[in-house]
Write a structure and sequence with these properties.
It is a single chain. The protein is mostly helical. It has one domain: MFS general substrate transporter like domains (Growth Hormone, Chain: A). Helices cover 75% and strands 0% of the residues. Helix 6 packs antiparallel against helix 16 and helix 14 packs antiparallel against helix 15.
């Protein structure tokens, strides 16, 4: 099976190599980063912002729902610790269910296209936030957040597929990093919203999906999805590339998708290259989870409200979100110059340092060794530094590389399989964190993730290949032969 797979990939590489070479000989201005490509990526990324908003929702909403003040808390009573854990982890459960459902009903998604799928999801999310604005019972919160989690699962896979398919090899890393930029933007918006009331927070959550619905009329569909219809595919390519000379790129796409066989999740585990793609992608996301970013994002306000800092937990969240936006933007330019792997290693080692120092600080606080506010700048300093180094590597690059590691025919299914495993891990983290910290303290949790991040650094150094500047066929060839 391995030899046959290698031969199949090599044959495809030879077929596509000619068209890629010919395309590269064309004048560079024909394949510049066109305004339509930028507009399409930006519009789709509005749903990425929506996803980021939902991941930070607990940090903004939990302190209000825990309040005894009826003017702050719209519920009849403060939520319990188990309700808090459920509120934080429930979207992840249904995110995973959404991805599984997408795999089971993949024919529907393949028939209606990436664009139409995203439009449907945006409409459902908008309705959910509208209901949440007037919700008076915790069960309504659970129901709406479950639906939002389902929608987030579809956003995760379809938006990634759409962005990677509209981009060129030369700017794919930049486009995917910009998608990674959306999550911290959404986080920051959620932290800002935390300064308002519950109804306003929900209304703010409607803005991005509604904006996407308004702008989606002008979006071209993915050329890869349209490849069976030559006229529509070429029309989409002309709009995306800003040139009428798209014949060579159309042939490249057609050659890369000429296998019309229907794929299932089991196909991910039938070849050496796809198994390696899956394993390396899971490894990358596990490294991101080990960095502690998901728990810090979800519980920013509750954690740092008790840290005796100069500023509140929500303020720290806003500052950290701003830092992420700036440095993910920086990463989008560095990723095509320095490469993926160097940025991952740089990010990992400094995340270890930050987690250790934050753990020490919380240990001193919890044991009353620091009893006044003279060192209140410490958590702010280390959180800012943490998000600086996280945002240039472990933040945007795992998703970028996952979209690169899978071939076109297995991309959507492969990403879905990876996200199922990732969401299970994140669910365990978010559900257990409030219970563990209540039992043994925040500092032990931070040190645990520090240790896990050390293992992640070693694993990245040993196993992760560099994909900078390589076509998807070259990457598949490398995985099949050398990894």
């Amino acid at each position: 099976m391995t030899e046959c797979e290698c031969e199949r990939i090599q044959e495809k590489c030879v077929q596509v190599h000619y068209f890629t070479e010919e395309r590269d000989k064309q004048p560079k201005e024909k394949y510049r980063f066109s305004w339509m490509l930028g507009f399409s990526a930006f519009t789709g990324d509005l749903l990425g912002v929506t996803y980021g908003f939902s991941t930070s929702w607990p940090s903004s909403i939990i302190p209000k729902l825990q309040s005894n003040n009826t003017e702050v808390n719209p519920l009849s009573a403060p939520i319990t610790p188990i309700e808090t854990a459920t509120l934080a982890a429930l979207p992840l459960v249904f995110n995973t269910i959404g991805i599984i459902a997408l795999l089971v009903t993949s024919k529907i998604s393949d028939k209606i296209g990436r664009k139409t799928s995203l439009i449907c999801i945006a409409a459902v999310i908008s309705l959910c936030y509208l209901v949440l604005a007037f919700a008076k019972h915790i069960s309504i919160y659970f129901l709406c957040l479950a639906l939002i989690g389902l929608c987030d699962g579809v956003i995760t896979t379809n938006l990634a597929a759409y962005n990677s398919e509209i981009a060129l090899d030369s700017n794919r890393g930049k486009v995917m990093c910009f998608q990674g930029l959306c999550v911290p933007i959404g986080n920051t918006v959620a932290y800002f919203a935390g300064f308002t009331n519950v109804k306003t927070i929900a209304c703010i959550g409607i803005v991005c999906p509604l904006s996407f619905l308004c702008l989606s009329y002008f979006l071209p569909e993915s050329p890869v999805f349209l490849v069976s219809n030559e006229a529509r595919c070429k029309k989409a390519l002309k709009r995306l590339r800003g040139t009428k000379d798209v014949e060579l790129e159309f042939l490249t796409i057609k050659k890369s998708t000429d296998d019309t066989r229907k794929f299932t999740i089991f196909d991910v585990f039938k070849s050496r290259a796809s198994i390696k793609s899956f394993a390396l992608s899971v490894e990358l996301f596990s490294a991101e989870i080990a960095s502690g970013a998901f728990l810090l994002t979800a519980f920013m306000a509750p954690i740092f409200d008790d840290a005796r800092s100069y500023v509140s937990g929500n303020s720290i969240g806003v500052i950290s979100g701003g830092i992420q936006i700036v440095f993910v933007f920086v990463a989008s330019f560095l990723v095509e110059r320095l490469g993926r792997k160097p940025l991952l290693l740089f990010s990992s080692i400094f995340v270890v340092l930050n987690l250790f120092c934050l753990g020490v600080y919380f240990y001193l606080i919890n044991n009353d060794i620091l009893v006044n506010g003279e060192y209140g700048w410490i958590p702010l300093f280390f959180v800012v530094f943490y998000y600086m180094v996280y945002s240039v590597g472990l933040g945007p690059i795992p998703f970028t590389m996952t979209c690169e590691l899978f071939s076109h025919d297995l991309k959507k299914i492969g990403i879905s399989a990876v996200m199922i495993v990732t969401n299970i891990q994140v669910f365990i983290v978010l559900f257990s964190f409030p219970l563990i910290t209540e039992a043994i303290g925040v500092h032990f949790c931070l040190w645990l993730y520090c240790l896990l991040s050390i293992f992640a650094f070693v694993a990245i150094y040993i196993t992760i290949p560099e994909t900078k500047g390589k076509s998807m066929f070259e990457i598949q060839d490398i995985l099949a032969r050398h990894y």
